[in-house]
UniProtKB/TrEMBL annotation:
The lineage of its organism: Eukaryota, Fungi, Dikarya, Ascomycota, Saccharomycotina. Its EC number is 2.3.1.225. GO terms for biological process: protein targeting to membrane. This is Palmitoyltransferase. Belongs to the DHHC palmitoyltransferase family. It catalyses: L-cysteinyl-[protein] + hexadecanoyl-CoA = S-hexadecanoyl-L-cysteinyl-[protein] + CoA. The keyword Methyltransferase does not apply. GO terms for cellular component: endoplasmic reticulum; Golgi apparatus; membrane. It is found in: Membrane. Residues 121-262 form the Palmitoyltransferase DHHC domain. It comes from the Eukaryota. The DHHC domain is required for palmitoyltransferase activity. GO terms for molecular function: protein-cysteine S-palmitoyltransferase activity.
Length: 341
Protein backbone atom coordinates (compact mmCIF):
# COMPACT_ATOMS: atom_id res chain seq x y z
CA UNK A 1 0.00 0.00 0.00
CA UNK A 2 1.33 3.40 -0.96
CA UNK A 3 1.01 6.07 1.73
CA UNK A 4 -0.17 9.45 0.51
CA UNK A 5 1.72 12.28 2.32
CA UNK A 6 -1.29 14.60 1.93
CA UNK A 7 -3.49 12.22 3.93
CA UNK A 8 -0.74 11.70 6.52
CA UNK A 9 -0.48 15.48 6.99
CA UNK A 10 -4.28 15.77 7.31
CA UNK A 11 -4.43 12.89 9.86
CA UNK A 12 -1.58 14.48 11.85
CA UNK A 13 -3.34 17.88 12.01
CA UNK A 14 -6.71 16.33 12.96
CA UNK A 15 -5.14 14.00 15.57
CA UNK A 16 -3.22 16.91 17.16
CA UNK A 17 -6.34 19.11 17.34
CA UNK A 18 -8.41 16.20 18.71
CA UNK A 19 -5.80 15.33 21.38
CA UNK A 20 -5.57 18.96 22.55
CA UNK A 21 -9.37 19.26 22.80
CA UNK A 22 -9.66 15.86 24.51
CA UNK A 23 -7.02 16.66 27.14
CA UNK A 24 -8.61 20.04 27.91
CA UNK A 25 -12.17 18.74 28.13
CA UNK A 26 -13.80 18.79 31.58
CA UNK A 27 -16.16 15.94 30.69
CA UNK A 28 -13.52 13.23 30.33
CA UNK A 29 -12.83 10.80 33.18
CA UNK A 30 -9.49 11.00 34.99
CA UNK A 31 -8.45 7.55 33.73
CA UNK A 32 -9.28 8.37 30.08
CA UNK A 33 -7.35 11.63 30.37
CA UNK A 34 -4.29 9.93 31.89
CA UNK A 35 -4.32 7.27 29.12
CA UNK A 36 -4.64 10.01 26.46
CA UNK A 37 -1.87 12.02 28.17
CA UNK A 38 0.55 9.12 27.58
CA UNK A 39 -0.66 8.58 24.03
CA UNK A 40 0.41 12.13 23.07
CA UNK A 41 4.21 11.58 23.51
CA UNK A 42 3.94 8.23 21.70
CA UNK A 43 1.91 9.93 18.93
CA UNK A 44 4.51 12.70 18.69
CA UNK A 45 7.30 10.08 18.19
CA UNK A 46 5.29 8.08 15.65
CA UNK A 47 4.41 11.23 13.66
CA UNK A 48 7.97 12.60 13.82
CA UNK A 49 9.52 9.32 12.60
CA UNK A 50 6.90 8.83 9.95
CA UNK A 51 7.64 12.30 8.53
CA UNK A 52 11.39 11.58 8.75
CA UNK A 53 10.86 8.29 6.86
CA UNK A 54 8.80 10.11 4.21
CA UNK A 55 11.51 12.75 3.92
CA UNK A 56 14.27 10.15 3.62
CA UNK A 57 12.65 7.62 1.29
CA UNK A 58 10.36 9.79 -0.83
CA UNK A 59 12.39 12.99 -1.09
CA UNK A 60 16.04 12.77 -0.02
CA UNK A 61 16.91 9.55 -1.90
CA UNK A 62 14.98 9.94 -5.19
CA UNK A 63 15.00 13.72 -5.61
CA UNK A 64 18.08 15.41 -4.13
CA UNK A 65 21.73 15.32 -5.09
CA UNK A 66 23.08 15.91 -1.58
CA UNK A 67 26.44 14.21 -1.09
CA UNK A 68 26.82 10.83 0.60
CA UNK A 69 28.45 12.43 3.66
CA UNK A 70 25.64 15.01 3.94
CA UNK A 71 23.02 12.23 3.81
CA UNK A 72 24.99 10.29 6.44
CA UNK A 73 25.13 13.41 8.66
CA UNK A 74 21.34 13.81 8.31
CA UNK A 75 20.70 10.21 9.28
CA UNK A 76 22.91 10.58 12.36
CA UNK A 77 20.62 13.50 13.31
CA UNK A 78 17.39 11.50 12.98
CA UNK A 79 17.43 10.07 16.56
CA UNK A 80 17.85 13.54 18.18
CA UNK A 81 14.10 14.36 18.58
CA UNK A 82 13.46 10.94 20.12
CA UNK A 83 16.46 11.18 22.45
CA UNK A 84 15.50 14.68 23.64
CA UNK A 85 11.88 13.57 24.18
CA UNK A 86 12.97 10.44 26.10
CA UNK A 87 15.27 12.50 28.36
CA UNK A 88 12.45 14.94 29.16
CA UNK A 89 9.83 12.18 29.51
CA UNK A 90 11.97 10.25 32.02
CA UNK A 91 13.39 13.27 33.87
CA UNK A 92 12.45 14.30 37.39
CA UNK A 93 11.11 17.88 37.24
CA UNK A 94 11.95 18.34 40.93
CA UNK A 95 9.18 16.45 42.73
CA UNK A 96 8.95 17.39 46.38
CA UNK A 97 8.98 14.39 48.70
CA UNK A 98 9.10 14.04 52.48
CA UNK A 99 12.86 13.40 52.25
CA UNK A 100 13.78 16.53 50.25
CA UNK A 101 10.99 18.80 51.56
CA UNK A 102 12.92 20.69 54.24
CA UNK A 103 15.81 21.35 51.83
CA UNK A 104 13.41 22.60 49.15
CA UNK A 105 11.72 24.96 51.66
CA UNK A 106 15.13 26.54 52.27
CA UNK A 107 15.89 26.98 48.54
CA UNK A 108 13.79 30.11 47.89
CA UNK A 109 12.59 32.86 50.22
CA UNK A 110 8.86 33.56 50.35
CA UNK A 111 8.32 36.90 48.60
CA UNK A 112 4.91 37.36 50.32
CA UNK A 113 3.58 38.60 46.98
CA UNK A 114 3.23 35.42 44.92
CA UNK A 115 4.14 33.00 47.71
CA UNK A 116 3.27 33.17 51.39
CA UNK A 117 4.77 30.92 54.06
CA UNK A 118 2.80 28.22 55.92
CA UNK A 119 0.60 27.38 52.92
CA UNK A 120 -0.06 23.65 52.87
CA UNK A 121 -0.65 21.49 49.80
CA UNK A 122 -4.00 19.79 50.42
CA UNK A 123 -2.93 16.67 48.51
CA UNK A 124 0.69 16.16 49.63
CA UNK A 125 -0.04 17.54 53.13
CA UNK A 126 3.30 19.36 53.11
CA UNK A 127 4.06 23.08 53.42
CA UNK A 128 4.48 24.45 49.89
CA UNK A 129 8.03 25.70 49.28
CA UNK A 130 8.18 29.11 47.54
CA UNK A 131 7.93 28.80 43.71
CA UNK A 132 6.51 25.26 43.93
CA UNK A 133 3.13 24.17 42.59
CA UNK A 134 1.10 21.00 42.90
CA UNK A 135 0.48 19.23 39.59
CA UNK A 136 -2.67 17.13 39.56
CA UNK A 137 -1.45 15.08 36.54
CA UNK A 138 1.92 14.18 38.13
CA UNK A 139 0.22 14.03 41.55
CA UNK A 140 3.11 15.85 43.26
CA UNK A 141 4.29 19.28 44.25
CA UNK A 142 7.09 20.33 41.91
CA UNK A 143 9.95 22.70 42.81
CA UNK A 144 9.87 25.89 40.69
CA UNK A 145 7.06 24.41 38.62
CA UNK A 146 6.75 26.01 35.20
CA UNK A 147 3.92 24.05 33.55
CA UNK A 148 2.79 20.52 32.77
CA UNK A 149 3.94 19.76 29.21
CA UNK A 150 1.41 17.63 27.35
CA UNK A 151 3.93 16.69 24.60
CA UNK A 152 6.00 14.69 27.08
CA UNK A 153 3.33 14.21 29.78
CA UNK A 154 5.67 15.49 32.45
CA UNK A 155 5.97 18.63 34.50
CA UNK A 156 8.60 21.16 33.58
CA UNK A 157 10.30 22.37 36.74
CA UNK A 158 13.55 23.35 38.37
CA UNK A 159 15.40 20.09 37.59
CA UNK A 160 14.36 19.46 33.98
CA UNK A 161 13.92 22.98 32.56
CA UNK A 162 17.29 22.64 30.79
CA UNK A 163 16.10 19.46 29.06
CA UNK A 164 12.90 21.26 28.04
CA UNK A 165 14.91 24.06 26.36
CA UNK A 166 17.05 21.36 24.69
CA UNK A 167 13.88 19.60 23.45
CA UNK A 168 12.53 22.88 22.02
CA UNK A 169 15.84 23.72 20.35
CA UNK A 170 16.19 20.27 18.77
CA UNK A 171 12.65 20.54 17.36
CA UNK A 172 13.37 24.04 16.09
CA UNK A 173 16.61 22.79 14.49
CA UNK A 174 14.73 19.89 12.85
CA UNK A 175 12.05 22.16 11.35
CA UNK A 176 14.43 24.90 10.15
CA UNK A 177 16.99 22.43 8.76
CA UNK A 178 14.18 20.39 7.18
CA UNK A 179 12.79 23.55 5.54
CA UNK A 180 16.21 24.44 4.06
CA UNK A 181 16.82 20.86 2.86
CA UNK A 182 13.45 20.79 1.08
CA UNK A 183 13.12 24.31 -0.33
CA UNK A 184 16.35 24.28 -2.43
CA UNK A 185 15.80 21.04 -4.41
CA UNK A 186 12.13 22.01 -4.79
CA UNK A 187 12.77 25.62 -5.88
CA UNK A 188 12.38 25.09 -9.68
CA UNK A 189 9.13 23.08 -9.15
CA UNK A 190 7.88 25.77 -6.74
CA UNK A 191 8.58 28.52 -9.32
CA UNK A 192 6.80 26.54 -12.03
CA UNK A 193 3.75 25.86 -9.81
CA UNK A 194 3.62 29.52 -8.65
CA UNK A 195 3.82 30.92 -12.23
CA UNK A 196 1.06 28.56 -13.41
CA UNK A 197 -1.07 29.40 -10.35
CA UNK A 198 -0.52 33.16 -10.86
CA UNK A 199 -1.88 32.99 -14.42
CA UNK A 200 -4.93 30.92 -13.37
CA UNK A 201 -5.98 32.31 -9.98
CA UNK A 202 -6.63 35.65 -8.28
CA UNK A 203 -5.80 36.58 -4.69
CA UNK A 204 -2.78 35.32 -2.73
CA UNK A 205 -4.64 32.63 -0.72
CA UNK A 206 -6.23 31.20 -3.88
CA UNK A 207 -2.85 31.34 -5.68
CA UNK A 208 -1.16 29.49 -2.79
CA UNK A 209 -3.79 26.74 -2.84
CA UNK A 210 -3.60 26.53 -6.67
CA UNK A 211 0.23 26.32 -6.52
CA UNK A 212 -0.01 23.55 -3.87
CA UNK A 213 -2.50 21.62 -6.07
CA UNK A 214 -0.18 21.94 -9.10
CA UNK A 215 2.88 20.96 -7.03
CA UNK A 216 1.37 17.76 -5.62
CA UNK A 217 0.41 16.65 -9.15
CA UNK A 218 3.98 17.05 -10.48
CA UNK A 219 5.23 13.81 -8.91
CA UNK A 220 5.75 11.90 -5.68
CA UNK A 221 8.88 13.72 -4.47
CA UNK A 222 7.20 17.10 -5.13
CA UNK A 223 4.08 15.92 -3.29
CA UNK A 224 6.10 14.75 -0.27
CA UNK A 225 8.28 17.89 -0.35
CA UNK A 226 5.23 20.18 -0.49
CA UNK A 227 3.56 18.48 2.52
CA UNK A 228 6.75 18.49 4.59
CA UNK A 229 7.34 22.12 3.65
CA UNK A 230 3.87 23.04 5.01
CA UNK A 231 4.67 21.17 8.22
CA UNK A 232 8.06 22.89 8.70
CA UNK A 233 6.69 26.35 7.76
CA UNK A 234 3.85 26.01 10.29
CA UNK A 235 5.74 24.43 13.17
CA UNK A 236 9.08 26.30 13.00
CA UNK A 237 7.56 29.75 13.90
CA UNK A 238 5.42 28.18 16.65
CA UNK A 239 8.37 26.40 18.27
CA UNK A 240 10.58 29.49 17.76
CA UNK A 241 7.99 31.71 19.50
CA UNK A 242 7.68 29.21 22.36
CA UNK A 243 11.50 29.00 22.75
CA UNK A 244 11.86 32.80 22.73
CA UNK A 245 9.05 33.11 25.30
CA UNK A 246 10.81 30.71 27.64
CA UNK A 247 14.20 32.37 27.21
CA UNK A 248 12.51 35.69 28.04
CA UNK A 249 11.08 34.09 31.20
CA UNK A 250 14.60 32.95 32.17
CA UNK A 251 15.84 36.51 31.50
CA UNK A 252 13.05 37.94 33.71
CA UNK A 253 13.52 35.30 36.44
CA UNK A 254 9.94 34.04 36.30
CA UNK A 255 8.17 30.80 35.43
CA UNK A 256 5.04 30.37 33.28
CA UNK A 257 3.11 29.78 36.51
CA UNK A 258 4.49 33.04 37.98
CA UNK A 259 3.75 34.96 34.76
CA UNK A 260 0.07 34.00 35.28
CA UNK A 261 0.26 35.07 38.93
CA UNK A 262 1.77 38.45 37.94
CA UNK A 263 -1.13 38.93 35.50
CA UNK A 264 -3.55 38.39 38.43
CA UNK A 265 -1.56 40.91 40.52
CA UNK A 266 -1.76 43.46 37.68
CA UNK A 267 -5.55 43.01 37.57
CA UNK A 268 -5.75 43.67 41.36
CA UNK A 269 -3.57 46.80 40.95
CA UNK A 270 -5.86 47.95 38.15
CA UNK A 271 -8.85 47.57 40.50
CA UNK A 272 -7.03 49.57 43.27
CA UNK A 273 -7.53 46.81 45.84
CA UNK A 274 -3.88 45.88 46.51
CA UNK A 275 -2.29 47.68 49.48
CA UNK A 276 1.25 47.67 50.80
CA UNK A 277 2.91 48.85 54.01
CA UNK A 278 5.83 51.03 52.92
CA UNK A 279 8.64 50.52 53.70
CA UNK A 280 8.16 46.72 53.76
CA UNK A 281 6.78 44.14 51.38
CA UNK A 282 3.69 43.40 53.49
CA UNK A 283 0.72 43.20 51.16
CA UNK A 284 -2.96 43.24 51.96
CA UNK A 285 -5.96 42.77 49.72
CA UNK A 286 -9.05 44.93 50.20
CA UNK A 287 -12.33 42.99 50.02
CA UNK A 288 -15.49 44.50 48.44
CA UNK A 289 -16.87 45.15 51.99
CA UNK A 290 -13.83 47.38 52.77
CA UNK A 291 -12.10 44.91 55.14
CA UNK A 292 -8.67 43.39 54.48
CA UNK A 293 -8.10 39.75 53.56
CA UNK A 294 -5.96 38.89 56.60
CA UNK A 295 -4.74 40.02 59.99
CA UNK A 296 -1.13 41.12 60.48
CA UNK A 297 1.15 38.71 62.31
CA UNK A 298 2.85 39.96 65.53
CA UNK A 299 6.19 40.09 63.65
CA UNK A 300 4.65 42.25 60.91
CA UNK A 301 3.03 44.57 63.49
CA UNK A 302 6.30 45.15 65.30
CA UNK A 303 8.11 45.76 61.96
CA UNK A 304 5.47 48.31 60.91
CA UNK A 305 5.58 50.21 64.21
CA UNK A 306 9.42 50.23 64.37
CA UNK A 307 9.74 51.45 60.75
CA UNK A 308 6.72 53.77 60.90
CA UNK A 309 5.35 52.08 57.76
CA UNK A 310 2.26 53.53 56.09
CA UNK A 311 -0.42 51.56 54.28
CA UNK A 312 -0.69 52.81 50.68
CA UNK A 313 -2.43 51.54 47.58
CA UNK A 314 -0.15 49.87 45.00
CA UNK A 315 -0.46 51.73 41.70
CA UNK A 316 2.05 49.87 39.52
CA UNK A 317 3.66 46.41 39.54
CA UNK A 318 7.06 48.17 39.52
CA UNK A 319 6.50 48.82 43.24
CA UNK A 320 6.58 45.05 43.79
CA UNK A 321 10.05 43.54 43.46
CA UNK A 322 10.66 40.14 41.87
CA UNK A 323 13.10 38.76 44.42
CA UNK A 324 13.69 35.64 42.29
CA UNK A 325 15.31 37.58 39.43
CA UNK A 326 19.08 37.58 39.91
CA UNK A 327 20.02 38.53 36.36
CA UNK A 328 20.00 36.34 33.24
CA UNK A 329 23.33 34.59 33.96
CA UNK A 330 22.36 33.63 37.54
CA UNK A 331 18.83 32.63 36.52
CA UNK A 332 20.23 30.40 33.76
CA UNK A 333 22.91 28.97 36.08
CA UNK A 334 20.25 27.96 38.60
CA UNK A 335 18.34 26.05 35.89
CA UNK A 336 21.46 24.44 34.44
CA UNK A 337 22.74 23.30 37.81
CA UNK A 338 20.09 23.48 40.58
CA UNK A 339 22.21 21.46 43.06
CA UNK A 340 21.21 21.15 46.68
CA UNK A 341 19.85 24.28 48.40
ZN1 LIG B 1 1.26 18.79 46.38
ZN1 LIG C 1 2.78 17.58 35.96
Amino acid sequence: MRVEPVYVLAVFIIATAFSLLFLRSKYISKLARSVAANVVPVGYCVAMYFFLWLFDQRFLVPFTNYSYSHKLFLRVNYPLPLVSLAILFLSNPGKITRSNHSAEVRRFEYDRILYTPFTECRTCLLTKPARSKHCSVCNACVAMQDHHCIWVNNCIGLRNYKYFILFLMINLYAFIYGFILIIFPLSSSLKLAWSQASSNANGNATKLWAAFSILIRLGNPEKTGACLLILCTTLAPLVAAFTIFHLMYVYAGITTNEADKWEDIKALIHENVLFMYKPSSILLLKRPDGTFNRKLTPDEESFISSHNSKLTVVTTEKELPNIYDNGFASNARLLLSPGEP
